[in-house]
Amino acid sequence: MNLTCLLVDDEPPALEVLTAYVQEVAHLKLVGTCENALQAFAVLQQQPVDLLFLDIKMPKMLGTDFLRSLPHPPLVIFTTAYRDYAYEGFELNAVDYLLKPVSLERFLKAVAKATKTEPSPVPVEAPAGPNPDAFLYFRIDRKMVKVMLREVLYVEGLKDYVKIHCAVGPTLVVKQTINSMEEKLSASNFLRVHRSFIVALDKVRTYSPSHLEVAGQEVPIGRMYRQQVGAVFR
Fold first, then answer.
1. Cα separation of 11 and 158, whole Å?
2. pTM of the entire structure?
3. In the prediction, which pLDDT does 225 show?
4. What domains are defined for the chain?
5. How many degrees, rounded to 5, is the angle at CA 165 between CA 159 and CA 167?
6. CA 8, CA 38: separation in Å to the nearest integer?
7. What is the model's pLDDT at position 92?
């Protein structure tokens, strides 16, 4: 059984090792390599694959969260330096869980397991939007205010505060940093596009290399974020 595969890891040396291993196996066809989940998502939109070699602890989004975002995930072999995620990995029906540094012998055993497992024939679709019932609470004026994630358009950072722009109701000002907001929203349908802005992906109307349009408002794309934003909207 021939399997197309994609390597996802934020460590270049790990990608080099896995690439070399894949090239040793005749029935594995390497589709590409990615440094983070957003790049992997862009590849999967263009070409579904049979098997993912997926790191877990990566910037922007954990590999486990990325896998949960895929409605029809391919077979997955986790590759990580951390034992702590093993239980969660197998809860997600991973074929195998490889600890770095990965030996060729251990790699081949994992591939053998994948070969015996029927890959999903269903094409990969875009990740679903946020759970319509998902929400967060924020302290505003000595009260805890419930915010439904489906109503959030974008978040704007202002030093130690953020402004949460919503489709319904007033803009909310919360004493919290943009970095902490990014962590809270990392498993949902949101993307950091600028050091001061996080947008809801399903609310983006238009995209250009320098700006996004969300609900009639232009949101700038920071130079450091252009590559990952382009990977999503390519």
1. 32
2. 0.51
3. 86
4. 3-115 (3.40.50.2300), 135-233 (2.40.50.1020)
5. 175
6. 10
7. 79
